[in-house]
Amino acid sequence: MSIVAVGSVAFDSITTPSGSVQDVLGGAATYFALAASYFTQVRVVGVVGDDFTAQHEEVLKSHNIDTRGIEHAPGKTFRWGGQYLDNLNEAKTDYTELNVFENFQPRIPVEYMDSQFLFLANIHPTLQAAVRLEMKDVRLTGGDTMNFWINRTRKELGETLKLVNVLLINDNEVKMLSGEKSLPRGARKVLAMGPQALVVKHGEYGATIFFREGAFGVGTHPFRAPALPIEEVKDPTGAGDSFAGGFMGYIASQNEVNREVLKRALFYGGVMGSFAVECFGTERLQSLTRNEIDGRFQVFRELTHLG
Amino acid sequence: MSIVAVGSVAFDSITTPSGSVQDVLGGAATYFALAASYFTQVRVVGVVGDDFTAQHEEVLKSHNIDTRGIEHAPGKTFRWGGQYLDNLNEAKTDYTELNVFENFQPRIPVEYMDSQFLFLANIHPTLQAAVRLEMKDVRLTGGDTMNFWINRTRKELGETLKLVNVLLINDNEVKMLSGEKSLPRGARKVLAMGPQALVVKHGEYGATIFFREGAFGVGTHPFRAPALPIEEVKDPTGAGDSFAGGFMGYIASQNEVNREVLKRALFYGGVMGSFAVECFGTERLQSLTRNEIDGRFQVFRELTHLG
């Protein structure tokens, strides 16, 4: 089943201890769509400028990603520059040029309206909510957010969280959103804000999914998936969005959404995140095979399962 | 099979967001011994002062822990005071009074000499090495160390690492010891220093065991065990030593030491660490049952295993 993904398409300039790249294709929607494309059809909603060429679009199209929802606006595409020289877990931003993304108003093509899965990447919560309300046939919505929106638009974010089935954020964002230092308590508070499930991303340590009582199955037991101990993290940019792509893509490829599916999805999220960081930008996500993905899924299983 | 544990016995004063306690029984050997006592017989080697009463000793003896190797010296027992007010992952030390521990010279009672398992808690590496060399029948030695010894006694530590089969340290200690930021690379460098296996403790995110090629089985694939998302960490003191106790205790209770045993041991380490932090000091470790421990092992399994 297809997924609609709404979010940024960008050109990134990135420096890490392994090297640097200039103006490579990036953005949350791009990473998400490429990662999810190995599981199901993805339809992107975003905005780009004149500098986004047919060649860039072909990167997406060659993965059967529907680009009809990518609006071409006069001006330049969103650009971001950052470095991870001291700490691979946190980027130091050199510049953020919003450009055409500044006035982004997501427009959902009528051809996308039959999609039953939706991913709202990290954009203004009011835009996230509007998209969700417009797409009436959606069965499951995944969403992301960040410290900026938690601090500045908490009321609007509160409304959006009522519309999101699975929220995917990191440890710090759980703490900020809930005001709790304890992860299980923080998770419970976030779940009380709306989502049926909360995926907390722990970076190199994997991710934990917490369930609201009775949501997608019985009980409130969390589940934890690992991350792969990676020899050389070349570029952590987009790891979280690639995780979300693997997670949502796997869910959309299944007939039913239950806890077992969500647990496997958490593993596939980790798998796609682990591939993403192996090369700069989206390079590794562009050239995968489903065999490689399922092979790494097995590695994740062996990494965590007793005999 | 019995384990000899060499390390500190102490009185701790601890303040955390959940409260504070004064001069409670602690020390690496105490946490280790109590945690391991649910799996096998433990024999402690340490030193205490006049303030260590028969009642304190009874805490250990009531868990069938052999205390004949605890030397009673004139003076006061090692005392430590610390707080975790800002950060549950790192103690701020208020005071360290080494007292009788300052001139600790481990003496192994002749009755301990038939033990096949040995745990060298965090003491001077030269003392660790001497104990290991004295105990000629030992089949498997686990060891701990810390930043202090890595910085100040690197040469001596290097000699000790050649005698340790399984080293248990945390992420930062791997980085310091190896000079590598990448965990898999750092692990490989540490394994090249001597140990056949390296357990890296990730605090609230669990632990990973890395194997030297061919050690305890085939290949070099690591294995990761989770930690339990804990509602309220009342007191993190001793979590690492309790982890080591569960890990080594389970190994010593098995007939063979192979990779599957080491993987399960990693789970039992996490289980004992998760109990330790639920109450102040060793309180929770004093009152467990094997049923509770195996119940939590199942929770850890459900937390990580796909159906």
Work out the helicity level of chain A: 25-40%
First-residue to last-residue Cα separation of chain A: 34 Å
Placed side by side, the strands forming the largest sheet of chain A appear as 5-4-1-8-9-10-11-12-13
SS class of chain A: alpha/beta
Name the poorly predicted regions of chain A: none
Q: Choose one word for the global shape of chain A.
A: globular
* Overall pLDDT confidence of chain A: 96
Portion of residues in beta strands of chain A equals 15-25%
Considering residues with a beta carbon less than 8 A from a beta carbon on another chain, report the largest interface and each chain's count: A-B, 37 and 36 residues
SSE ordering of chain A: EEEHEHEEEEHEHHEHHEEEHHHH
- Biggest β-sheet of chain A, characterized? 9 strands, mixed
β-strand number of chain A = 13
The number of helical runs of chain A is: 11
Q: Assembly state here?
A: homodimer
Question: What is the C-alpha radius of gyration of chain A, as a whole number of Å?
Answer: 18 Å
